[in-house]
Amino acid sequence: MLPTINIFGINISAYSVMAMLGLVFATLLVWRLSRGREDINSVQIVNIPAIAAIGAFVGAHIIYGVTHLDKLWWCINHLPKVFASWDSFVLYAVDIFGGMVFYGGLIGGIIAGAIYCKCMKLDTLAYADVLAPAIPLFHAFGRVGCFLGGCCYGIECDWGFKYEHSPVSEANGVTRLPIQLFESAGDLVIAAVLVILFRKKLKKGMLFLLYIIMYGVLRITTEFFRGDVIRGFLFGISTSQWISIIMIISAVAVMCRLLFPKKAESVK
Question: Which terminus of the chain faces fewer neighbouring Cβ atoms within 10 Å, N or C?
Answer without folding.
Answer: C
